[in-house]
């Protein structure tokens, strides 16, 4: 009888070890031996700086950022800015990690020119006074020939999570004019966005069981879903009609902690971050139907968060090397810091992929802590460290951008102040 009762638990444990054993060992039970700082492009002490809002300290706890490109009539890049979504109140209101204590203080949007200079605050023009604003994922369409751009921002408001639509005019970049609030019964836990047109996008939903559940379920079930790597997240495609109607369709189901999203410049491939399993999933995309077909999986040395393609076609992946440290920072533990790590993921040629023993090779050997120490090599892609820190230089990294023309790397942290700028 005892054996019969124990069998299901043994099977569940075996399944967990098979799927999540590497993550549990390297990113939960062990603190990776990361340096104070490492930057691929040079000496981090000389090449990196942190840009802050020195007066109000509101460039803080920025979860996501994206490039806002200005293009001429021929589609050539004329100017490039970085748009950041920041929420200094994140330690009091976080619908992903908790707590849900005080949703009143609003978050902020900031604009920073890749040419340097002081960051510029972006005011929410026409935004309803009764609306909360807690930005998570955001994406903006390029400005064509000086025309306005559509901006979509995931908003973890007090009652439910919505997606806010704004318009940004290059002639008045200090204002984001509110257009509408998008809602759907399928917006359970929206996290990241990837535009497929100025009025359509993919959106990831990271959890089925969220912190919004009544206590004690909201304290237990989301953690169980995350740590257990339960395949309950998904990706949807959303189109917005001229009247604001939301047209929703499921695109990829059964993803553990579906987080960051990124679409290649030609729109034919979508990358998705599975945080719980520390993996990146690549999908071939049908540009007509928006259907997705899984093609490759690439393991990460950390719990992957947000992802972005650079102009060269490399995927920039950022994440959290040690989950308990991130929890300690979120809980305001005295002296707590959370490590940071960002890598580039580049596709390999078919000839390289078939080399005997290729998947067992060491890789990323220039980094202070090689990614190959924590994750096996991928047959389809090459992984290379761009920046890493034990948290003393820069903490809780969640999003990085790389400008391929200049080589400059930008990074923000979920519970860090400022924008890290590293120039090669």
Task: Explain what you see.
The structure is a single chain. It is built from five helices and 26 strands. It has one domain (20-422): TolB, C-terminal domain (Neuraminidase), CATH 2.120.10.30. The protein is mostly beta strands. The chain has helices at residues 2-28, 44-47, 217-227, 323-330, 350-353, and strands at residues 38-39, 48-51, 62-71, 77-86, 108-113, 120-125, 135-140, 143-144, 149-156, 161-168, 175-182, 190-197, 200-205, 233-240, 246-255, 258-263, 269-274, 279-285, 292-299, 303-309, 315-320, 340-347, 381-389, 397-402, 409-413, 419-422. The protein is globular and about 55 Å long. The model is unreliable at 2-15 (pLDDT under 50).
Strand order, sheet with most strands: 7-9-10-11-6-5-4-3-8
In total, the number of strands is 26
- Tell me the β content: 35-45%
What is the name of the CATH architecture? 6 Propeller
Tally of structural domains: 1
Using the alpha-carbon principal axes, give the shape. globular
Mean pLDDT: 94
Helix/strand class? mainly beta
Q: What name does CATH use for the topology?
A: Neuraminidase
Largest sheet, in brief, is: 9 strands, mixed
Count of alpha and pi helical runs? 5
N→C terminal distance? 65 Å
